[in-house]
Predict the structure.
Amino acid sequence: MTKAIVLFSGGQDSTTCLIKACQLYDEIHCITFDYGQRHKKEIEISIEIIKKLKIQVHKIINIHLLNELTISSLTRYNIPVPIYDKNINSLPNTFVPGRNILFLTLAAIYAYQVESEIIISGICETDSSGYPDCSNNFIKTLHKTICLGMSTNIQLKTPLMLLNKAEIWALADYFDQLSLIRTETLTCYNGVKGDGCKKCAACYLRAKGLAQYQANSYEIMMQMKQKIGLK
């Protein structure tokens, strides 16, 4: 029996990864991290989607220490979430330092415990708002560190790494779950379900990708399939 761990936030990317994982593995364990994030609704949404998809195991892990250590608009109510501005090239205040390092490390410990060698996350460098912990190089480096430090062959899989947002929508459509992804997930930095606030960077990238996919669905579907090896 194949077993996989999925890092699950209830957002577009992690839900798309979960849907894909359900086609590939016999047993799915989802991990949702409660790090004192600005919007607790993320956790509520993740629970709702888990029930819809009938996932076997869902762990909600409390790591509020991350909230205490990081200064970000996603961990501090007194820091406003910025409106998307394509002319700003600096690291946005929505970046949570160390978040993916901690998430993946804790997931590796959990995987070691339940004897799984597969960890799946929705990390994607193409539309990552320039976050340094969303790069393929970061994943490769952390993977090597985890394997050395735990004497394990755990794999860190990032199915969306080389896809843009339009292609991620295509992947959801490929599995006949585009409607669920659009209406039931929460990607918005302001905590608005579905199409979101339409002002923050997360909403901008999501809406732009959907519009591109809807305008040219066949070609984008073919591009997506070629990139990740789907028939």
